[in-house]
Design goal:
167 residues, two-stranded antiparallel sheet, 2% strand
C-alpha cells in the first residue's frame, strides 16, 4: 500500500519535529548519562524507520533529516552508537548529504507553517466515548517496549548510504 506524497511529506515533517525535540532533550542530558544513549537510539530508530517508509514517496522534505542520518551513520559502528552523537552539528546545508539518492527532494524544501503540520492528538482531541461497532481497526500502542529489540541503526544503510539508481 503506497502512501500519498502529501501524506509522506507531512509524516516526515512530524518526524523532524519529534526528532528535534528528542535532540534537544539529549543535548540537555549530561555526557556519560545512559539516558543520552537511549535518546540517541530512539532518534536513530525514528529517522531510519520514517525515511525508509516515506522518503521514496515524499516529494519534499527537510535536509535536516538527511543530515541527521549522516550524523547517526558517523557515530555508529556495528549498528550501535560508540558515543553520543553531536546533535548540534546537524545543519540544513550539510555538504555530506549531496550524494544521497533522496537529496533532490530536499533542495526546494520549505518548512511548513505551524498550522500546516498535522496535529498530534492531545487529551482534548481524543474521543471519550467507545465506538459501538466492532469493525474499528485495532492498533497496538506505540511504546518503546512494543518496538523490536533490534540494534538502533540496523536500517541506516538503507537510508543513509548513497544508492546508485538506474538511469
Amino acid at each position: 500500500m503506497s502512501v500519498p506524497p502529501e501524506a509522506a511529506n507531512d509524516a516526515l515533517n512530524v518526524t523532524l519535529a519529534i526528532v528535534q525535540s528528542l535532540m534537544k532533550r539529549c543535548i540537555k542530558v549530561k555526557e556519560g548519562n545512559p539516558k543520552a544513549l537511549k535518546l540517541s537510539d530512539e532518534i536513530a530508530r525514528r529517522v531510519a524507520r520514517d525515511l525508509k517508509l516515506y522518503a521514496g514517496t515524499a516529494t519534499s522534505f527537510s535536509p535536516l533529516l538527511l543530515s541527521c542520518a549522516t550524523i547517526i551513520r558517523q557515530y555508529s559502528r556495528g549498528s550501535a552508537f560508540q558515543s553520543v552523537p553531536d546533535w548540534t552539528s546537524i545543519t540544513d546545508d550539510d555538504p555530506r548529504i549531496k550524494d544521497h539518492p533522496q537529496f533532490q527532494k530536499t533542495v526546494d524544501y520549505h518548512p511548513p507553517s505551524v498550522l500546516d503540520v498535522p496535529a498530534i492528538a492531545t487529551s482534548s482531541t481524543i474521543p471519550t466515548t467507545i465506538p459501538t461497532t466492532t469493525s474499528a481497526l485495532i492498533v497496538p500502542p506505540f511504546t518503546p517496549s512494543a518496538l523490536p529489540s533490534l540494534p538502533s541503526c540496523t536500517d541506516l544503510d538503507l537510508v543513509a548510504k548513497p544508492v546508485v539508481e538506474p538511469k
